[in-house]
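Researcher: Quick one. two chains, 340 residues in total.
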Amino acid sequence: MKKYLLLLVLPFFFVAQGSSQRAVNKLINQVKKHDKAVAFTIPGWIMRTGLRFALEEEEPTLEKGYRDLISGIRQLRFVAVDDKVEIESEKLNKIINTLKTKDGFEDYARVRDKGNNVHVMVREKKDRIKNLFVLVHGEDQMVVLNFKTDISMEELKNADLSFNKKGKNNG
Amino acid sequence: MNKLFSIIAILFLGLSVQAQTDAIDKFFNSYQDDENFSVVYVSPKMFKMVAKVAGEELDDELQSIVKDLRGLKVLTTEVNAKQVYADAVKRIPTSEYELLMTARDDGQNVKILTKTKGEDVIEELLLLVGGADEFVLVSFVGNINLNDLSKIASSLDIDGAKHLEKLGE
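Model:
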């Protein structure tokens, strides 16, 4: 009996995990239909491989900080439109609220000034950044970025320290 | 029995402190989706991340402020500014704050209020500006050094933040 109950519960677990991306993916899929949209989806393994090649060519002894950062990249979805995008503010606010109330995202920063809006939202799990979502929406532009990661603050800081050391040495 | 009363009193105290913070949050939230308002919100986590990740790249003054800040809210409008200011004064429990400075400048009412922890630590600074053409609310939360804040006030590029420059005087 317990086995059957577990089998019944498991699909709901996977559905819950999937729903954390549904609102974001729906928005990106809608925006990328615009004539002037530039959109791409890069799987994590391509980004990780490409970044490693690029950085190792520049920095043969790639510092550990960068390696840890790169290994935490999972997926990048991006769409940008340099034109007016017909999406109602209420609909965007609803998506933002869904991300916060149902999908575990937190507001990191928000700016609205003269018709231009910027939202930066992050989903964390056990002090690791699992998702970075950035939405820029103005009268004649829109950018949506969804970055799936598995990076800790320490890894971000360590990578930055490595860069700072290099910058200071060159300066 | 005395212990029970003490516990209940502490609980109520905690609730009243929470209510003050909630009053500003509620006021801010009630206008943040209004297209007539300019909004800036930086969360405690964002400040923590910036301090941790990019702290060494900031200049000393900015670094000393950022590392101790836990939140920033800015709300400004040029529409119905006087009514919004009156609403702010009504809804935000300004009597619970210490009035640091008040001024009238070109028809604008300016209030800078603070909440301190102990004698020297300012844990919240609230700037309210209300005039015919402009309403500004700026709320800093954290361990605030007034001298450092006044030095960077001009670089904040926030309407009304110029009044913060007077804090260092």
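Residues 2-168 of chain B form one domain.
Researcher: Thanks, that's what I needed.
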